[in-house]
Write a structure and sequence with these properties.
41% helix, 19% strand, globular
């Protein structure tokens, strides 16, 4: 008898308004990914390729909204104005949640968000036109010293300014950052000869392959697998300048746990699809690695500590 009563009560609980978990029918409408880059750049390519597969996983349309500028801060600010219901995902470089929060006055931190996953390791580095007289960052700096002139480059994020400012101060040269929005604008500036060199996360690779541009240096802990002959900044003589960057997907920490899990699992499956892997490696020029929520959180928490220590060391 008691067992029958429990079964009856359980059945009735499913009929009561609001008794079901918020995630029971999630999603029942389109999901938006707010991307921290303008259309055409590597970040936009990543988000759109993942979004197409994510639609299949979630069974709902995935809308891409581009909010380029400030290295992802505009996209994050836009997302923070939306309800924390899981229908808004942010897609930016991981540095927006780590290094940028240490070097700029952001109104958010890594602790405000839940990582859903990361797709792609950026092949961060400097590049220039193929006909320039320098073949590495060390040669570029030596040229600037010899010619006694300032250098310029287009910038759409925060941390490349940190790198160039450090190099400029250490080497006694002026390096000017020209503000632009997104990878397409960076390419246009360098191709047009408006600036001396550029900084990108991999979108420059197709131009290097075409013989129009040349890699100067990478900024990772190791050389890029796509450019094994290109030295890192550490190898060039600036050992403190070691940065690894990823394309991260995340949502407000206030989103219900069940929905976060649903989104994370769907994102990992979407990012692992051959079509996405090909888009990342080919069009976006990033290494197509996929990290789940736990792995992503661990990587970024460790990066935050390392960058904080690095910044302190650079002040000495």
């Amino acid at each position: 008898m008691k067992h029958a009563v429990r079964v009856c009560l359980l059945f009735l609980s499913f009929l009561l308004p609001g008794a079901n978990p918020a995630s029971a029918a999630f999603p029942d409408r389109p999901v938006t990914i707010v991307v921290g880059f303008a259309a055409g750049g590597a970040g936009d390519i990543i988000a759109r390729s993942v979004g197409l597969e994510l639609e299949k996983e979630l069974g709902q349309p995935v809308v891409i909204v581009n909010k380029g500028g400030s290295g992802g801060a505009l996209a994050i600010g836009d997302a923070l104005t939306r309800p924390a219901d899981g229908y808004t995902i942010v897609g930016t470089i991981s540095a927006a949640l780590t290094l940028d929060t240490l070097t700029a006055k952001t109104r958010y931190s890594l602790a405000d968000f839940s990582l859903l996953g990361m797709t792609g390791v950026y092949q961060e580095g400097f590049f220039c036109l193929a006909d320039k007289p320098w073949k590495s960052m060390k040669e570029l700096v030596a040229w600037a010293k010899r010619e006694n002139r300032a250098l310029s480059y287009p910038s759409s994020v925060v941390f490349d300014k940190l790198i160039t400012r450090y190099i400029g101060e250490k080497e006694g040269i002026e390096i000017r950052a020209v503000p632009v929005q997104g990878g397409a604008a960076i390419i246009s500036s360098v191709l047009g000869g408006h600036t001396d060199f550029g900084y990108g996360g991999g979108f420059q690779s197709s131009y290097v392959k075409a013989g129009k541009m040349r890699h100067l240096a990478g900024i990772g802990r190791q050389r890029s697998p796509y450019a094994p002959d290109v030295p890192t900044l550490a190898e060039e003589g600036w050992p403190l300048l070691v940065f690894d960057n990823y394309f991260a997907f995340y949502a407000s920490k206030k989103v219900p746990a069940e929905i976060l899990t649903r989104l994370s699992e769907a994102l990992v499956r979407a990012g692992s699809q051959p079509s996405v892997q090909q888009a990342l490696a080919g069009k976006a020029g990033v290494y197509p690695a996929v990290f789940n929520a736990a792995e992503s959180t661990k990587i970024l928490e460790e990066s935050l500590v390392r960058y904080r220590n690095m910044l302190e060391e650079m002040k000495k």
